[in-house]
Design brief:
single chain; five-stranded antiparallel β-sheet; five-stranded mixed β-sheet; rod-shaped; HATPase_C_sf; membrane; transferase
């Protein structure tokens, strides 16, 4: 019989939903977009491309404008040379040449007075030449670039060419460059994001596969992509690492199993001999030795469970009276004060739950000392059974925190396996185990497992459960 998988909220006040199946599950979350590799690649690609586009565009625009300006200057010089040649040549007339050759033309005598102009410059006639040697002037709000040429006896000819078209072309080129610098970054970023997403899709898939690896459940190798690229090499390296981890775990389990096997047989004989001696002599020293043998027996049990791991541990579900469980732990850890409601029933693996509570009570008794108090309280709600173990000892070391539940971490001089095993058993029952310091002093451990209603849809217990209702208190299995 197994409890039904059902999301519930643990009674410790946390808001995380847990799926009540043996072993629990992993929770994965997507990385924020600003921390993603493809965003950084797209941004870097966009910035580099923008710099290259800016430099290239500036070079192209500068070259284009320079060529346009050179062509404009060449045309102006060509026009000035043509007019100067026409005025100095034989049989050419001033009015005919000036009127047909350029709209911006003036003849200046040797005294610097304008004596002939194009129609558009008539206002300068018979007046001193106003522009001197300036190469760029403004005529009637029009920018004009000008040059001068000598024309023999006539004096000097001044020829100008309006820059309206050149200025318009320059403004158009700069506007196009500015527009490109505004639009290009956005297009580059979107393109880079899309290209990066497609290019890194294999890497994202590999990350999702690696994120689902749970060494406590399986170390199966990851599937490799067909294309032998960087992602293929990454997954290959992860697979080699998984193989090494699996080999290391196998060696550790084998070593622990051998240690437990070597310790188990002598401890079993020693425990039986001490029990017989205790029955015959009732000697306090023999009783203490028997308790030490019990302690060593349970330590070997914890080592065996650590060697087997969560994958190999199976729960044997039974529905037993709470008083049966109470009798078991009372025999294993004498001197415990029981409070709460012990009249109901519990759906659990009796041996495993006994082992978990025994570890908690043994740690509490060790912390409280012979004269201290250890209390086990049971409360029941429609969804949860909560066991609370409190002692009168010094409390949990603040610097350990959650590390107290890791194997071989102890704050009381014990093996450091009991709390780790107890939490593992609680999780396999679909529950939780937490520890804290009680405000009134001492340590407080809370073990909560789902109530029987979560896993049994029928109202009547089966035949096996009925047989267990009157089960006498028994020691936990070794």
């Amino acid at each position: 019989m197994t409890p039904a998988a059902r999301p519930v909220t643990p009674p410790d006040g946390s808001r995380r939903a847990a799926l009540l199946v043996p072993g629990g599950g992993l929770v994965s979350a997507r990385v924020a977009w600003r921390h993603s590799l493809r965003f950084r690649l797209a941004l870097t690609y966009s910035l580099l491309a923008l710099v290259l586009i800016l430099l290239t565009s500036l070079g192209v625009v500068t070259l284009l404008l320079s060529r346009m300006d050179q062509q404009f200057t060449d045309r102006l010089n060509e026009r000035a040379d043509t007019l100067a040649e026409a005025f100095t040549g034989a049989q050419q007339g001033l009015g005919r040449t000036a009127g047909s050759a350029s709209a911006y033309t003036m003849l200046i005598d040797t005294q610097g007075v304008v004596y002939a102009t194009s129609p558009i410059l008539r206002e300068f006639n018979d007046a001193p030449f106003p522009f001197g040697t300036q190469g760029q002037v403004s005529v009637q709000d029009t920018s004009v670039r000008a040059v001068q040429r000598p024309v023999g006896d006539f004096g000097t000819i001044w020829v100008g060419l309006p820059e309206v078209d050149l200025i318009a072309a320059r403004q158009s080129a700069l506007s196009a460059l500015l527009l490109a610098l505004i639009v290009a970054p956005l297009l580059l970023l979107l393109t880079g994001w899309w290209v990066g997403r497609r290019a890194l899709s294999g890497l994202e898939h590999a990350a999702n596969l690696a994120d689902r690896i749970d060494p406590t459940r399986s170390l199966a190798t990851l599937p490799l992509p067909a294309q032998e690229d960087e992602v293929h090499r990454l997954l290959t390296a992860i697979n080699r690492l998984l193989v090494r981890i699996e080999d290391g775990q196998a060696r550790e389990k084998q070593l622990l199993g051998q240690i437990v096997h070597e310790l188990g047989a002598p401890l079993t004989v020693l425990k039986a001999s001490l029990q017989r001696a205790e029955e015959r002599t009732n000697d306090p020293e023999v009783q203490r030795a028997s308790l030490v043998a019990d302690e060593l027996t349970f330590t070997t049990q914890d080592l065996m469970q650590l060697a087997r791991g969560e994958l190999e541990m199976k729960l044997a579900w039974h529905y037993i009276p709470a008083r049966t469980l109470r009798g078991r732990v009372d025999r294993l850890v004498p001197g415990t004060t029981f409070t709460g409601d012990w009249e109901g029933g519990i759906l659990c693996d009796p041996d495993r739950l006994t082992q978990a509570l025994r570890n908690l009570l043994a740690n509490a008794r060790r912390a409280a000392g012979p004269e201290g108090t250890v209390t086990l309280n049971l409360t029941e709600t429609p969804e949860w059974l909560t066991f609370t173990v409190r002692d009168s000892g010094p409390g949990l070391p603040a610097e350990l925190g959650e590390q107290i539940f890791q194997p071989f971490v102890s704050g009381s001089g014990s093996s450091g396996l009991g709390l780790s095993v107890s939490r593992q058993i609680a999780l396999m029952h679909g529950g939780t185990l937490t520890g804290e310091n009680h405000p009134g002093g001492g340590a407080l451990f809370t073990l909560a497992i789902p109530g029987a209603a979560l896993g049994d849809d029928s109202d009547e217990p089966d035949e096996e459960e009925t047989d267990l209702l009157n089960e006498p208190p028994l020691p936990a299995r070794s």
